[in-house]
Every structure is written in structure tokens, then in C-alpha cells.
Amino acid sequence: MNLSNFTGLKFSGNNVSDEVKWEMGTGFTYGLRAGVLFNRKYIIEVGYSNLGSYKYKGKWVYEYGGEVEKEDIEFDKKLPISGIFVTVGILF
After folding, report:
1. pTM of the model
2. Cβ of 58: how many Cβ atoms within 10 Å?
3. pLDDT digits (tens, 9 = 90+) for 8-19
């Protein structure tokens, strides 16, 4: 299980405030790893992690001169998050 939070933005100045707040996303996570040990001391490992896809939803809040506008917003499509990594290590 993965919990993902998309960072919000806030701008303000001269009686104007503009803010975007996003909700927390949750999804299924999986990963694969494989490694090789050399001379009982050196390790090389390669891995892949799929952290899920999220269709973030949030709220846009705009304030100007005391008046406040709010609007529900969301991404048009799911945002996939994944990564490939390489690890090199020495055992002590």
C-alpha cells in the first residue's frame, strides 16, 4: 500500500490569494529486486518499484478583496509513479 500526496501551491500579495490543496492518494505498490554478491564482499543490485497511479483531486481557492471563490479540481488522467534503481555496496 502506498500513500501519495501531491504538493499544493499558494501565492499571495496585494489583497490576492491563490491556493491549491490536494487530497491524499492511496494505491497498490509492488517492486522487484535482484542482486549479485562478488567475493563475499561486493554487492550490485538492480530494482524496479511501481508505486501506483493516482488521479489526484483537490480544491482551488481564490481570494480577491475579501471575496472567496472555491472550485473542485482533479487531474484529467491518472499520474503513474515508478522508478528503477541500482545499488552498489561493500560488506564490512
Report:
1. 0.57
2. 17
3. 888 888 888 888
